[in-house]
What does this fold into?
Amino acid sequence: MQAGIYIHIPFCARKCSYCDFVSWPVAAGDERIEAFTDGVCREIEIVARVHAASAPLDAPTLFFGGGTPSLLSPEQLGRILATVRTHFRLAADAEITLESNPGTLDSDKARAFRDLGVNRISVGVQSFHDSELRALGRIHTAEEGAAAIETLRAAGFDNVSLDLMFAIPGQSLESWRETLRRAIALRPAHISAYSLIIEPETPFERWEREGRLHRPDEDAEAEMYEETIATLCAAGYEHYEVSNFALPCRRSRHNQIYWRNEPYFGFGPSATSYLEGIRSTNARSLSDYLDGIARGERPVEQSEAPSGALAMGETMMLGLRMREGVESARFAARFGIAPEEVYAGPIRRLSDAGLLRAEEGRIALTDRGLLLANNVMAEFLP
Ligand code: SF4
It folds into this structure.
């Protein structure tokens, strides 16, 4: 079996005001990090034993996400990596990504991570304006964001991705342009640019309800998105997914597994796996997660097996996120029927509206469809 591997590291130095990811604020040396490290290694063993019984486990990608994985010590990260290598055949050219935040990775640690085999780092810079970073509740300044990229380069990382955010409270089109300019000047291999989403049960959601959060309106947000595409493409970045841009040959291989709706293992609290047609999600609470593992069980909280129609709809929805769209032959090989046949009605309607194009064996969003991506994708769900 071939599948990507995601490992969720559920700790951060401080909780950002907009974040609903499963992560807990910790100080350096917090004993929960060590308990988690032992637990996740045991989870890898338990899960691998079940799946390896039928076929060897080949992993082309490994992604440490979070949370803030760069809070782990090199010894802890090394232990998790060694466990993965024991139970999976990690490809010789595997993409091994680690998410980090400015202020959590000095040059010694970056070199140690590099020596362990991490070959791609994603840095949560978000903005190059201190006032916007403060508004988001980030722990770092704009200068520290830029310095983090230089530190990683000096440590030997040539595949660095930078995360940016737009539609931040108080942000103007001009300040977003400046953030894009500074990002491009650093020449990272990859840039992710997401708009701020207000998630339930976050301080941002409460402040918005109380009328204390002043965000750019929908038109301004759309303008920022169009500016992002124009600016990054003019600077030589390929716009390969709704929110992702890459220099040649630098797309995220791991995220493409998600967008192609292909199998992946997920380890750690709240992590999702998609294996043999079953999507399962681990317990969110650290104690429930660790208790399950201590009993020798997979710490799964919920699971579902998307039916044929749902699995096809999800494959379309995820695949349309990529600019290259859904490859008809790949879809037909998987489901035994061509997407043009299953979705003849929506494809005709959306093509007539100029939102979709179905040609040369692919179905993809047009530039106009991109701006209405969520509405277009919803047309394919049962
Ligand atoms: S650093 Fe990332 S994961 Fe951690 S609280 Fe902030 S947004 Fe959430």
